[in-house]
Amino acid sequence: MQRLRARLARSNTAFGRSLLALLGGGKLDEEAWEDVEDTLIASDLGVEAATQLVDKLKQRVSAEGTTDEETMRGWLREDLIELIDPSMDRRISSRRLEDRPAVLLVVGVNGTGKTTTVGKLARVMVAEERKVLLGAADTFRAAAADQLQTWGARVGVDTIRSDKEGADPAAVAFDAVKAGQESDADVVIIDTAGRLHNKANLMDELGKIKRVIEKRSPIDEVLLVLDATTGQNGLKQAEVFAQVVNVTGIVLTKLDGTAKGGIVVGVQRQLGVPVKLVGLGEGPDDLAPFDPATFVDALLD
Ligand code: GDP
C-alpha cells in the first residue's frame, strides 16, 4: 500500500495541491466554491458527486464557523472516503472450492490492460503458492495469446490457448476450465477480447463464453478492466459490459498516469460494484488491492 501512495501521489499532486490551495486561499466566496467544484469535476468524479461533496463541505464550514485548511482537508477526506464506500467487499473470489478451481473471467476493451492485469494477478496468486492456469480466450489476434503466454511463462504458470487464429473463444475458455479441473488448479483466469466497435458481436461473443464456461463450472468473479486515463469514456464502456456479463469487480489500470482518480467514484456508482484492484505500472508487481482511505490520502497529498 505504501507503493500505491507513492505512485498515486506522484500523479495526483496537481489535483491535491490545487484543491487545497483553493480551500486555503482565504475568502471562501461563491466563486471559490465553484472553483473547488470544477477541480473535483475535472478529476472525473462526476458532476453529481462533486456537487454533493461541495454542498456538504459548505454546510460544515458554515455550521462550524471555520475555514481552517487542515480542518477542511479532514472533512473532505472523510467525505471522499464515504463516497467511495469503504463498506464494499473488495476481496477477489479466487479461493479453490472443495471440488473445483475458482474461475475468473477478465473482460474489457482492448488496450485497457487486460492481459497485463491477468499476468500481474497470476503473479500475486503464485506468490501465495496457489496453482494458477491461464486461458487465452482472445483468439482474434494470435499476438494476444502469445502475449498472455509470455506473461504466463514469466510468472511460472501454464496457458491454455488455440494455435488457430480466429478459433472459437468460448471453446478455449471451456478447455481452460476443463484443464484446470483436471489438473487440480486452484484458480483459472481467462483473458478475453474486447472489440467494442461492434457491440452486437461483443455481446454475442462474451455471452457465449459465459454460457459455455457455465456448462462446466460457475464463474466466481468477472473483473472489468478500465483504463483510468480514458475518463468518461471508461464509464460508457463499463455500461456496455455490464449489460452483457455480471461484473463483480473493477480493475482500474494506469492510475500511475493520471490525476483523474475520481473515476473510481463514478464507476462504482454507475455499476454498483467495487473497484477491487488498481494498476500502477507496466511491471509484474504493479498491481495493488484498492483501499479507499489510502487512495483518498494519495489524492489529497
Ligand atoms: P489489453 O489489450 O486490454 O490486453 O491490454 P494490454 O494488457 O496489452 O495493455 C495495453 C498497454 O497498457 C500495454 O502497453 C501495458 O503495458 C500497458 N499497461 C497495462 N496496465 C498498466 C498500468 O497499470 N499502468 C501503465 N502505465 N501501463 C499499463
UniProtKB/TrEMBL annotation:
Any GO MF annotation of the entry: GTP binding
UniProt subcellular location: Cell membrane; Cytoplasm
Enzymatic reactions: GTP + H2O = GDP + phosphate + H(+)
Keywords, in A-Z order: Cell membrane, Cytoplasm, GTP-binding, Hydrolase, Membrane, Nucleotide-binding, Receptor, Transmembrane, Transmembrane helix
EC number of this enzyme: 3.6.5.4
Positions bound to GTP: 108-115, 191-195, 253-256
All residue ranges annotated as the SRP54-type proteins GTP-binding domain in the record: 274-287
Topology with respect to the bilayer: Peripheral membrane protein
Domain of life: Bacteria
Single biological process term from Gene Ontology: SRP-dependent cotranslational protein targeting to membrane
A GO term from the CC aspect: cytoplasm
Subunit (UniProt): Part of the signal recognition particle protein translocation system, which is composed of SRP and FtsY.
Function: Involved in targeting and insertion of nascent membrane proteins into the cytoplasmic membrane. Acts as a receptor for the complex formed by the signal recognition particle (SRP) and the ribosome-nascent chain (RNC).
Family recorded in the similarity comment: Belongs to the GTP-binding SRP family. FtsY subfamily.
Name of the molecule in the record: Signal recognition particle receptor FtsY
Species: Kineosphaera limosa NBRC 100340
Covered residues, full protein: 86 to 386 of 386
